[in-house]
Amino acid sequence: MESQCPICDLEQADESDVVFRDELWAAEIVPGYDVPGWFFLRARRHADRITGLSEGEQETFGRRAGDLVAAVTHATGAEATYMLMFGEAYPHFHVLITARTADVPSDRRSGDILKLRAEHADPERARALVPAVRNAYAHRTSGSLVADVLSVEGG
Ligand SMILES: [Zn+2]
């Protein structure tokens, strides 16, 4: 059955599009936003905007967002990784995380990065990045990415 919410519909996303899912949160690449290095982080239940999050969702959002931004940065080598939130057209709480890699020209940085949605959509390359981000996320959430970074910095 089709819901009225395209963010809820991401529950049916193909496994190859999914970075992670846990009880409360999911991250995927999303048709229409399939620029390489772009991911949605969303509440799994239909929570309306950031103000509609449950206590548990509020408490865990910062950790999930931080871990996903770190994983995207690690996997793409981005110089900066952005997190954007609107919540108007699609109120179901989600943020768009975008890698801003070195090849993004200066007039496509900060808010102008959204112009890449039309200009740089590449579903195949976007999907090809998923395993690396998935691994970086898994490493980070198991603590070993931190250990890797420390050993590189210390070594
Ligand atoms: Zn929804």
Structural class: alpha+beta
Helix tally equals 5
Global geometry: globular
Low-confidence stretches: none
CATH class, named Alpha Beta
CATH superfamily: HIT-like
Q: Please state the CA-atom Rg, rounded to the nearest Å.
A: 15 Å
- Average pLDDT: 92
Described by strand count, sense and barrel closure, the largest sheet is: 5 strands, antiparallel
Bound molecules: zinc ion
CATH topology label: HIT family, subunit A
N-C termini distance: 54 Å
| Name given to the CATH architecture | 2-Layer Sandwich
Describe the structure.
The longest helix has 22 residues, at 55-76. This protein has a single domain (8-105, 117-154), classed as HIT family, subunit A. The chain is globular. The chain has helices at 55-76, 116-119, 123-128, 130-141, 144-154, and strands spanning 18-21, 25-28, 38-43, 80-84, 94-100. It has a five-stranded antiparallel beta sheet with strand order 1-2-3-5-4. The N and C termini lie far apart (54 Å). It contains five helices and five strands; from the N terminus they run βββαββαααα. The mean pLDDT is 92. With 155 residues, the chain is of the alpha+beta class. Residues 5, 7-8, 46, 92 line the site of zinc ion (ZN).
Offer a concise description of the structure.
35% of the residues lie in helices and 17% in strands. The protein contains 5 helices and 5 strands; from the N terminus they run βββαββαααα.
